[in-house]
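Ticket #4471: structure export looks truncated?
Reporter: QA, pipeline team
Priority: medium

Steps to reproduce: submit the single chain below to the structure queue and open the exported record.
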Amino acid sequence: MAIADITIIPIGTETPSVSKYVAGIQEVLEKRAAEGNITYQLTPMSTLIEGELSELFNVIQELHESVFSEEIQRVATNIRIDERKDRSDHSMQNKLKSVEKHLSNKKS
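Actual output as written to the record:
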């Protein structure tokens, strides 16, 4: 299981706001998540997507290309991927649980 942190930046928009483009990207992710191959989480600065690496690359390409349908002529996409081969339980939730465990140990 891999986790991708992606930021898709439409360039040349009419206003500084890109929230309508982010909403369109989330619609694509909802559709793909309903198929059962990925999970995702929107954050204030990016979107996290979890799944098999080959599937993530397909989804990222679809997301990148979806912005062009909004009459945008240029798109920049930043991708950061975290994948572990030494554990089968590598997930967004387990990463958070691990940090929370360390925090609770410090408070004890």
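Status: closed, not a bug. The export was complete when the record was re-opened. Leaving a note from the reviewer for reference: The mean pLDDT is 93.
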